[in-house]
C-alpha cells in the first residue's frame, strides 16, 4: 500500500503502491499516509519527503469500493470518514519537512488534493488532472481548502463545475505544479541539494510563514509578528550558527559533508 525509504541524504520516499487500483484512496491508505507523514515530520534524520506513485497513475482519487461502502453510511458516519481524509491532507500540508511530489498518469479528485498539499510539484507530460466529483453527484469539499490555496478561484469555478480534464501546461498555469518534466528525479535532486543548504528549523518556520502571511493585511499587527519571528530566529541556535558560519566563511553545521 505504501513503500517508505530513507536514503543517506535524508530524503524519505513515500510511494503509493496500489498500482492495480491506480493508487486510489481507501480507508487503510488514508490512515497509513497520515501516520507516515506524522512520523517523518518528527524524524530529525528526514530533511525532505518525496511523494510519488507506482504504476500507471499517481492517484486516481477515491477507491470505487470505498465509495460504494460510503453510500450505506449515515450522515454522521460520512462526516467522520471525510474528516479522516481531511486529517491526512492537513498532515501532509503541515508537515514541517519540505514535501516534493511527482505527478503522473491520472490525478483525479483526492489525487489533486495530494498534489495541492505538496510544497514543490513536478508533473510528467502524461499527467491528466480532473476534479470529477460533480459527475458522481458529489462536490470536492474536503480537498477544496487545499486545492483553492494553490489554484486561483477563477480556475476552480471552471474545473469544479465542468470536471474537464486538464493537462500539465494548464496545471502549471494555475500553479498546481511548478515544473513539467519527464526526468523528474533530476529536479528532485536539484531541489533536495538546495534544501540541504538550509537549516531544518528555519525551513519548517519559513514554510509556516508563507501560510501565516498570505492574504493578511500589511498592518502594525502583522509587521510586529514578523519582526518577532525574525528576532526569535536570530537568537536561536540555528540562527547563531548560520551567522557565525557566514562570518567565518565556513559551512554551517547542518550542511552535510
Structure overview:
- With 257 residues, the protein is an alpha/beta fold.
- Helices cover 50% and strands 13% of the residues.
- It is built from 11 helices and 8 strands.
- Strand 2 (11-16), helix 1 (27-42) and strand 3 (48-53) form a beta-alpha-beta unit.
- The mean pLDDT is 95.
Describe the structure in brief.
The chain has 257 residues and is an alpha/beta fold.
Question: What is the fold's blueprint, element by element?
Answer:
Elements: E1 2-6, E2 11-16, H1 27-42, E3 48-53, H2 64-70, H3 75-93, E4 99-103, E5 106-108, H4 110-117, E6 120-123, E7 128-130, H5 144-150, H6 153-162, H7 168-173, E8 179-180, H8 184-196, H9 200-213, H10 220-235, H11 237-248
Parallel strand pairs: 2-3, 3-4, 4-6, 5-7, 6-8
Antiparallel strand pairs: 1-2
Helix pairs in contact: 1-3, 3-4, 4-5
Mean pLDDT: 95
Structural class: alpha/beta
Percentage of residues in strands: 5-15%
- Unreliable stretches, pLDDT < 50, 5 or more residues? none
Biggest sheet, spatial arrangement of strands: 1-2-3-4-6-8
Helix content: 40-55%
End-to-end separation in angstroms reads: 35 Å
N-to-C series of helices and strands = EEHEHHEEHEEHHHEHHHH
The total of helices stands at 11
Biggest beta sheet attributes: 6 strands, mixed
Strand segment count:
8
How would you name the oligomeric state of the polypeptide chains in this document?
Answer: single chain
Shape descriptor reads globular
Instruction: Indicate the radius of gyration in whole angstroms.
Output: 19 Å
Amino acid at each position: 500500500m505504501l513503500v517508505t525509504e530513507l536514503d543517506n541524504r535524508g530524503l524519505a520516499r513515500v510511494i503509493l503502491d496500489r498500482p492495480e487500483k491506480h493508487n486510489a484512496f481507501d480507508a487503510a491508505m488514508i490512515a497509513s499516509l497520515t501516520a507516515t507523514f506524522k512520523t517523518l515530520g518528527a524524524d530529525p534524520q528526514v530533511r525532505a519527503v518525496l511523494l510519488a506513485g507506482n504504476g500507471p497513475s499517481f492517484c486516481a482519487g477515491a477507491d470505487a469500493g470505498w465509495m460504494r461502502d460510503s453510500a450505506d453510511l449515515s450522515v454522521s458516519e460520512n462526516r467522520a470518514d471525510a474528516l479522516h481524509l481531511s486529517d491526512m491532507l492537513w498532515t501532509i500540508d503541515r508537515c514541517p519537512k519540505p514535501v516534493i511530489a511527482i505527478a503522473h498518469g491520472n490525478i483525479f479528485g483526492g489525487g489533486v488534493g495530494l498534489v495541492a498539499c505538496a510544497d514543490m510539484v513536478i508533473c510528467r507530460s502524461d499527467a491528466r488532472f480532473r476534479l470529477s466529483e460533480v459527475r458522481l453527484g458529489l462536490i470536492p469539499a474536503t480537498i477544496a481548502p487545499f486545492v483553492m490555496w494553490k489554484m486561483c478561484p477563477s480556475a476552480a469555478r471552471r474545473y469544479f463545475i465542468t470536471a474537464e480534464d486538464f493537462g500539465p501546461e494548464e496545471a502549471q498555469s494555475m500553479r498546481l505544479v511548478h515544473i513539467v518534466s519527464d526526468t523528474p528525479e533530476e529536479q528532485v535532486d536539484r531541489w533536495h541539494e538546495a534544501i540541504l543548504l538550509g537549516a531544518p528549523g528555519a525551513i519548517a518556520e519559513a514554510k509556516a510563514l508563507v501560510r501565516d502571511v498570505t492574504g493578511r493585511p500589511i498592518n502594525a499587527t502583522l509587521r510586529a509578528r514578523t519582526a518577532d519571528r525574525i528576532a526569535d530566529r536570530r537568537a536561536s541556535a540555528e540562527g547563531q550558527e548560520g551567522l557565525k558560519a557566514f562570518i567565518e566563511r565556513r559551512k554551517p553545521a547542518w550542511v552535510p559533508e
